[in-house]
Amino acid sequence: MTSRPRxxxxxxxxxxxxxxxxxxxxxxxxxxxxxxxxxxxxxxAFVRFALATVAVGLWCVWRGxxxxxxxEPAGAARAGLLAGALFAGEFACIYLGxxxxxxxxxxxxxxxxPFWVALLLPRFVxxxxxxxxxxxxxxxxxxxxxxxLGDGLLxxxxxALPNAWWGDLLGxxxxxxxxxxxxxIRTTALSRVAPAKQLFYQVxxxxxxxxxxxxxxxxxxxxxxxxxxxxSLVLQALVGAFASYLAWMWMLAHYPATRISVFAFLTPVxxxxxxxxxxxxxxxxxxxxxxxxxxxxxxxxxxxxxxx
Length: 308
What we know:
transmembrane helix, membrane, EamA_dom
């Protein structure tokens, strides 16, 4: 992707890329959930990011992006390692959480990340501040997530999945870690590093850290998988962790992170659709109400200010 100046709103290119990414990410959560039955969760994440590290590394070489630290701005390497550690923690929470709750529910909680981005990022980047109606949208989406959490603790979902709240909390933790990764990328010397190199830090550190966590959890390591599991891991690595995340990193470098992050609330809608059609996951009134509030929040947060 060629160099473009930063914009203060989402144009057609950004909206198109976001829709494609959100559609796949919603499908990906269901794909991971379906594969957990055959491949241990953290080991699955490790294989995914090991493959993605190779893909991103080859992309960097092809694009002439140096993978060493010598040419980077001061402090970029430390920030890259921190972003990578946060990224690894996020995906450990996601993959472990999918053992306890449905893909659609976990995705709703994962996409709390924009709340944290909106609260934290403007303290460092004044241009990322939200206007009054945008805060209203954020509050509405937050209420939606609270409704979904209450449904897991007290409502219909508890009867079908008594331990769903564990997955819900892991999803919330993953969202916070995702937001912190975004803050690190936007507020440190890492922001002056090519988006592909930023992604290389994240998938590379994950590929180094996640196998250690998998061993600590006593997971079974095996590559004797079905054709479905192999296809799942290849899709997760090359489409999910490589192509879509590379597009996401590029958008973070060229568009406001607050607006991008909140637009990504569409992913739970796609996860709900795929989870219901493929895995037969239950659709509760609380979850539907939560998704409606989240969708309304997207519209408000991404509303352009009136010309004046």
